[in-house]
Amino acid sequence: MKKLLTISKDQRIKVSSKIESYLFPKFIYLNVEENTKFMIQKRNIKKGEKIFCQDHKTILSPVSGTIEGIIEKEGKYYLKIENDFKEDDSYNGVKEYTTKALKLNFSTILEETGMDTTRFKNKQRMILNGIEDEPYLVTKTTLHKSYAKEILSTLDLLASAFSMKAIQICLKENDRESIEAFSSEIGTYPNITLEILGDMYPIGEDNILKNYLRLKEETYIISTEEVLNIYEEGLKKRSKDIVFVTFTGDAIKNPMVVKVKIGTPLKDIIKELLEMKKCSYDILLNGLMRGTKIQEEAIIDEKTRAIYFMKTKERKESFCISCGKCIEVCPFHCNPYRAFLKNEPVIDPKCVSCGLCTFICPSNIKLEHYIKGEEK
Ligand code: SF4
Ligand code: SF4
After folding, report:
1. 99-235, what's its fold?
2. Would you state the pLDDT for residue 96?
3. Burial class of residue 259 (count of CB atoms within 10 Å of its CB; 0-12, 13-18, 19+)
4. Is any atom of ligand 2 closer than 6 Å to the C-beta of 334?
5. Residue of 208, 292, 341, 352 with the most ligand 1 atoms within 8 Å of its CB, for mutation
6. Sites in the chain below the pLDDT cut of 50
7. What is residue 312's predicted lDDT score, i.e. its pLDDT?
8. Angle in degrees, CA 120, 125, 127, rounded to 5
9. CATH number 2.40.50 given to 25-84
10. Ligand 1, atom 6: nearest CA belongs to which residue?
């Protein structure tokens, strides 16, 4: 096992433990592709109605309202819906099961919703990867605090439906709130245990985690979000229309977690909830180490987990001093130094873009760009 790192953090960035909500945007925007197949002919839709099919997935409307049409934003196309704020949250027709019936029929119940369950079959063990891998990110912690009971009961049902012998929930030792949330509920689940790991980066990467735990048997690694999707869509038959997003960074005065409607423009959140410092900043989506730069015009979608507002810093690249640190640190035995020396992309499929080589480089060379063959 190669060396993992403890990343130094700016202790002044503190994310509030209170969850804010932004559930009623005036307009929502759903990303559509050229090949999107629309399933509706009318303009007025209700929340939860099927609107289109994309990548074999049926997209349901997160709000009730009027379809305005397709618009372009930064080279992407979106279906724009004006919210009429009349959404009905009563989910009728959901069949209630007894615990025994659930345990016996859980795989069939999930398959009836169209969920692909083959990923769980013939696995002996399941690991809940509850580790937040990026600094200043508390989305998983928030979900653990709010839904520990639901997460545990869904894991237990999955274990019995697919005959898994054990489940481990992996958390970092400094994530005290998640540890407390699970510790107070776990007693009734003898097959589920907590595994507390050090604060090392990138230990939350699935392959690293598997190696670290020295797992030999067939194991399925599941994320906190995936468990909650199974709970909501499989068990409660509710379409996913909200996400929990951490808004953080040194350019905002009030970092916070927000429960936000999918399709909401980021600009709405900035205007309504965030207090920006008077400075120029970069906006990064889903990570400080492995995130991508976005603009204020971005739309919150179902994959949005975190948005970082970081003060713009000059990070001047200088000459390579051949220290070898980038090779030493890579947890996947890649050679970013060779990619840099060749001054051309050396695409190594083992690279997971964890960003450690760039982070460690004393000359500020953006090494993962060389190794991934991305634009420099
Ligand atoms: S970004 Fe890629 S090459 Fe660099 S340390 Fe991570 S896995 Fe290795
Ligand atoms: S860490 Fe940076 S300076 Fe050191 S060998 Fe790698 S590229 Fe060169």
Report:
1. Rossmann fold (3.40.50)
2. 65
3. middle
4. no
5. 352
6. 91-93, 375
7. 92
8. 90
9. yes
10. 354
